[in-house]
Amino acid sequence: MSVNTVMRCTGRQQCSLFLHVSGSLAMNEHVKGVSICTVAAGTMERCRTHVFHRAARKQLSGQQVEVQDNCFEVAVGQDVHVTLKTVPEFCHLRVSKTYSVPGCSHADLQKNVPECIAGKITYQLNPERKALSISVTDMLENTDYNLRLCHKGYICRGTGSQALLKKEDPQKNATLTYTRPLPCLCIEGWSSVFDAPRVQVCPFKNNMEELWSGVAFDSVKQTLSWEPACQTEVAVTLCQNTEESGCQNLANSTQSVSRGKVSFSTVDPHPRLCMKFSTKMGSWIKCPFAGSDFTAWDIEAAMVNGKTQLVVTSKIRPTLLLSSCRRAGPLACEGNEDILTFNVVKHQSVVPNLTLAMCGENCCIQARRIDVKYAAKVLLCDFNPSGTGGATAPVVSTSHWQTVWIVAPAVGLLTALLVSILMIGTAVTVITAHQRKCGGEVCHVTGSQHNAAFCSTSVYLVTPGSANPCSPQHTLPPIPCYYPAIEDTPNFENSEKTNLLNWVKKDSTI
Q1: Residue 370 neighbours by CB distance under 10 Å
Q2: In terms of DSSP H, where are the helices of 89-179?
Q3: What is the overall mean pLDDT for the chain?
Q4: What is the pLDDT of residues 428-450, one digit of tens each?
Q5: What is the DSSP string of 40-75?
């Protein structure tokens, strides 16, 4: 028995599918006919019986007879179980076969069967306007046609850019705009009929570079994250970029995702710390901290007080570990020996003044942060101070490290400035006591403070060597003053009378 598909058409784009079943058997006079049955998922069994007349049975007895039938209508992509048996059935003798009807991927069905006609989409790209000029041909006749942009995944999620092509319009054209040329951005089209097939064309399917632009860093939480704009099977790894050997992976820093957010907690924002994205199509590396604006800390050799020193500068407050080693590669060191762990103050320079004995050739200093989970290693092997052009500074054995901390003089200058401001403010508010002895009067002058009655008087500036210390040399304007407290003045009653008379006398002379 053989089974295949035939197409029966009543007009243009008006074709249906039928099964063509062909079987052969050896006839004898006891076989009255042949029965062909079909059944598919979700349908009842359908059977057709072909009966041989008595005269034909006698005439065909002992000969090979072929039976054909093409009257079973089927649907596109349907799986059909076909059975061929004799009538009457002898000893349950039958032939069965399962057949799969072609789907809409078949070219002939796309042109003639309505269930498969989705139209043909062509486009022209305008990157400057971020627009797609779309044309549709071979669409289902006498129906409207829908166009939209969507992000392809398990389903195609619309972006909001869409158009409706009316069946009355002779030209089936539309222009749709997009925001990002993502590889999952597709043009989707379908006829305006129930359960119509859809066609998708993805103009940027090879533009994988666009996916890796969504890297973000939270400077407060020190979290580095990335969320895919498209559903993509990707492995994300943190690595340290080197000029000599590419990007070397950090230990235990790989995360695999297809959807959802990738997040790395407590990350050192160093310019050489990068993210590596690996897919079946290849690998891409993005370094979000590359650039001077993201240099959180650095260490270099410089001349300090005529000596070659290591200078640590930082825009944050890191905890650093310095180690000595022998260079074995771009980032590889052998014989690491920890020297010092220290904290760096924000926006200050720290100079570990290293007094060393010679450690030999290929000696390096390795620095890294230990207060974060993912950190880059800085390997300093060239101790020639930057910008000096001099000879290489000596690097010495790690068994004789002596650390001397020198903090930048900015703190001292700032402290001196604050003390000066405080002294000036104190001098302005200090109380100046002027004491003059004339006729038993005592008057203490103050700028704005007093603890007794006010008086109005003239203050005389006394020149040294003057015969009469009470003679006026220079007269100043009247200023407020206060009398001494009662408990500090003996014979208070006599003094108060004397002071009062002197006050009246002096007041009358002004």
Answers
A1: 11
A2: 107-112
A3: 76
A4: 443 333 333 333 343 333 333 33
A5: ETTS--EEEEEE--HHHHHHHTTSEEEEEEEEEEE-
